[in-house]
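Instructor's aside before we start: the two examples that follow are unrelated to each other. I chose them only because their records fit on one page, so don't look for a connection. First example below.
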Amino acid sequence: MKKRELFVLVGVLALDLLSKYWIESILDLYDSITVIPGFFWLTYLRNTGAAWSIFEGQRWFFLVLAAAAMVGMAYFFFKTDKKNQILRFALIFMFVGTMGNFIDRLVLTYVRDFLSFNTFGYMFPVFNVADISLNVGAGLLILDAWFERKN
């Protein structure tokens, strides 16, 4: 693993865990702070499911699924050509996002979410830095597939 890959892995994981710790230190459960009126709030929630609280309360299902996903992502990462930086960073971001929420579920039994947005009248589900990391990784994975298809 290259230094910058390790830096991204450790940095994003630290940002996720520290931001969750910080939000718990400034807000009580269900409390909210308006950051940008009508658009962005910090709202502290605990999620025992996935997005939109689907499969709520299925902690062991998510722990096993996340552990298997992390093993698979690590395997593919180390099998991936070091020159394929897009795919390698896609796997790193997805791994870190999975790990951040895995740690929450393992230690706390729930995931701490706190980023809340209203986009064009739609209140998007509250999420966290780990979720952003997962989505960045998925976007990079799509980008990598697109470049592979072009070649």
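Example two begins here.
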Amino acid sequence: MAAEKKEVLTLKNIRNINMENILHSVLENRSVTRSALAKENGISLMTVKHIVDALIEAGILVEKESLCGDVGRKPKVLEISEKYGSIVCIDLTSKETFRFLIYDIYRDLKAEQSFFLDTEVSYEEGLKEAAGKVKERLLELNGAVVGVAVFVPGAYDETKDLVNYDLIAGFKELHIRALFEEQFSIKNILVFHDVFAAARSEYDSQDLKAESQFYFYCGYGVGGFFIYQDVPVSGAEKMAGEVGKMLLSMDGASEGYRTLEDTVSVLAVTERMKEQKINSSFRDFLERYKRGEDQAVQLLEPVFSTISKVLYNLLWVYNPSRVVIDSCERVYCELITEHFRQFMEKMRDEAIPIHAKVSAARYDEYHRMQGCFRMARDAWIQEISDFVQ
């Protein structure tokens, strides 16, 4: 077996790493002295000088006198140039609704809007109209757009610039990245599978990060994402996480099957409610289940049981230290979480080394967007370090 080769660090690699660390420090502190940068990043003042001077020459940083201090010479501090302003996060997980947030580069929320897409035109044309509304809001804010993060409801193949998602027909042949590059006239466009963005945000929100985390989402679609030691396991062509495509069958000899998504998604449950002529919203039906009404229990109990068994099997595959369960419906998320905890307790055996901590996702409507923001800003910083010499 061949030994794994280690990355060879060149002077350019080291310079890029130092430059990225310096930019992160300036963004976190908003204004900072050269000596503080050297101390915070464990590098010499001469290294700071070479990198900072290059960033000032490129127009990325500006140096000005500090407003702090009443007596004596005021120290000079470094800040990001005011010409860099916004990062846009766009949510395309709903068929009818377009939602966006605009942050400044320091992660302060500057604008938020949600509106229905125009159904009188194609999905692509509707997105272009929506992008126009985003640009109108951007004109009200200072500074150029440095990144756009888009999260989509299916796995994204960046080599083909296509999203693997069946529930929104308009996604089938839509080149998402190319569309938004054209609309915003920048190259830093990142497209994320929504479960990856949410999983990343959940992982980063922990006070003490777990060694590994499996994130499970059960809404109108079903997905999952595994993070191990801060590294997302994306798989070939970033297709990992499509647990909703997992096949379920009660008869191994039969050619027929149903997928997990066909069985437990919100859409699947509401379809069965229609078949049984249940005149109730999904949300109300969950409340009926909580009250122990027979009709709701009979329909939903097999759903929760299926999810628990699938998650338990996934524990054997990944053996994560933490499992996070999420849904577009908060009550559905809580019921799945509680059912799975009870199932794990029932299966508990000292001989079985499964001790994952199970929790519902933090219910923060900006959560996934913040995950997207962080990655878009990181990509912008990396872009700077690649072109500034």
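The mean pLDDT is 86.
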